[in-house]
């Protein structure tokens, strides 16, 4: 199992009603049961720092494998595609229950010892940054994934999750972080650079794709995932697909790849 420790002010938030909101969130967490969602096991509020207990996913995060942190190696295209499909299935499960995740990013896709994807990062700890420093840190960690409409209107929707998941797909395809100040100014925001490269009828698309994927993956299949990411990243939420559509398309691509390599889907 995995244990999260948080201050009471972080979990309950400022003002009245924080405890009631927390209890409502715990009830919601308890009802979440899907093979691609990290399972909430329980909590203890009798300690100074409230303890939240979750199912353990022992193989790190998708971020670790894309960006080679914590000593992790690269994963095959087949495994990355499977992880993308499973993550989308978990998010679609949430949306089917009218639940918005609100914090979709590659570090919140956990992996089991068999590389089954488990979506995490959903629940009380994400609700209440309590000071300017925590708010600044939250923005730095999530800014590249945040829906532009949320930044403009201040309201999360299911399509906000779709946008964030599009950024995760982009990380998988390019091997790049959403924002990097180590890149030239025109390429610092990877989504803008990626979309402009896709729209040009030239070889730029394959130049921006992760070289490992170019070597391993079927080019049409990689292009299909990239096109799906592009649709998820539409500035207007009305033009983005639903998570159900995203999950269905990724499962189709993952299953077709399994057939190509001679394994049953």
UniProtKB/TrEMBL annotation:
Keyword terms of this UniProt record: ATP-binding, Nucleotide-binding, Transferase
Cellular component, GO, one term: plasma membrane
UniProt GO BP: cell surface receptor signaling pathway
Keyword Lipoprotein annotated: no
Domain Protein kinase: 1-253
Molecular function as annotated in GO: ATP binding; protein serine/threonine kinase activity
PANTHER family reported in the protein's UniProt record: OS01G0310500 PROTEIN, WALL-ASSOCIATED RECEPTOR KINASE-LIKE 21
Designated name of the protein: Protein kinase domain-containing protein
């Amino acid at each position: 199992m995995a244990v999260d420790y948080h201050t009471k002010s972080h979990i309950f938030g400022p003002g009245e009603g924080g405890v009631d909101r927390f209890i409502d969130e715990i009830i919601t967490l308890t009802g979440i049961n899907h093979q691609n969602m990290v399972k909430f096991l329980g909590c203890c509020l009798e300690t100074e720092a409230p303890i939240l207990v979750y199912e353990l996913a022992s193989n790190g995060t998708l971020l670790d494998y894309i960006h080679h942190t914590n000593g992790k190696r690269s994963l095959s295209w087949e495994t990355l595609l499977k992880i993308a499909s499973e993550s989308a299935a978990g998010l679609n499960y949430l949306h089917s229950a009218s639940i918005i995740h609100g914090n979709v990013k590659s570090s919140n896709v956990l992996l089991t010892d068999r590389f089954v994807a488990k979506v995490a990062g959903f629940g009380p700890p994400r609700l209440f940054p309590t000071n300017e420093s925590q708010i600044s840190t939250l923005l730095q960690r999530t800014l590249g994934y945040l829906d532009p409409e949320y930044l403009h209107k201040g309201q999360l929707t299911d399509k906000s999750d779709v946008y964030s998941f599009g950024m995760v797909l982009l990380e998988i395809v390019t091997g790049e972080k959403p924002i990097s100040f180590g890149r030239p100014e025109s390429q610092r925001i990877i989504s803008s650079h990626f979309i402009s490269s896709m729209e040009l009828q030239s070889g730029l698309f394959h130049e921006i794709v992760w070289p490992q994927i170019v070597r391993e993956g079927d080019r049409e299949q990689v292009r299909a995932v990239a096109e799906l990411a592009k649709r998820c990243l539409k500035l207007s939420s009305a033009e983005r697909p639903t998570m159900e559509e995203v999950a269905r398309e990724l499962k189709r691509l993952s299953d077709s790849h399994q057939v190509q390599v001679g394994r049953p889907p």
